[in-house]
Amino acid sequence: MPPKKVTNNKPSKKTELKKKEKVIEDKTFGLKNKKGNKQQKFIAQVEKQVKSGGDPKLRQLEKERLEEKKRKEEAKKDEEEKKLLMKPVGSQKIDAGVDPKSVFCAFFKQGLCKKGEKCKFSHDPAVERKSAKRSMYAESEKEKEETMDEWDDEMLAYVVNKKHGAEKTNQTSIICKYFLDALENNKYGWFWTCPNGGQDCIYKHGLPPGFVLKKVFKG
In the predicted model, is pLDDT for residue 55 greater than 70? Predict the structure, then answer.
């Protein structure tokens, strides 16, 4: 029986060269276009290290370079945090009748309040989240108090779609006369309810094709 042919799994020189070029590219990323003598020297050292199979001195040099880069990034971050803390906080004001404990302390938020429990404002982050929700709700309610005489065609179409977009889909294509009457007389709004059964009205609550909002000027 003839001897088995031994398969050579060793990578070719071309493959090895490509691998080395990739390592050099990764280690010198962003440096090749820089003209500084220090950067160019480092690139040359990396190329020599990779092509020669590794040099402890060059590995140590790269380690020191990475540590220096990390130190600079941390120093920059610390500087930005200091600037934020040094930013002056104006005197915190609240509306009459508002409980100060329902308002999150602006000084505490920046780590500047030293009053502790004696502070008249709250130091509970949950209070700030609740306050943000209340503001969003108040803004939403304010919008809903608007009447259509303050809207344009785009806003009217948005409200109609928001209010009636999810209503029954088996309605007739005939537009509800009460809906049209409300539009014509500027009585339509967020809180308008169809007198013909509300959402159960079989007629369509949608803008007629080509509808243009008529503006009534107050004078």
Answer: no
- Distance from C-alpha of 68 to C-alpha of 77, rounded to nearest angstrom: 14
Cβ-proximal residues to 104 (8 Å cutoff; 6+ apart), any chain: 121, 122, 123, 124, 125, 127, 128, 131
Give the Cα separation of 26 and 173 in Å (integer). Answer: 65
**What residues does each domain of the chain span?**
13-86, 100-131, 169-218
Identify the sign of the CA torsion 147, 150, 153, 154: negative
Among the residue ranges 96-105, 106-115, 126-135, 169-178, the one predicted with the least confidence is: 126-135
> What count of other Cβ atoms lies within 10 Å of the Cβ of residue 178?
19
101: Cβ–Cβ under 8 A, 6 or more apart, which residues? 120, 121, 122, 127
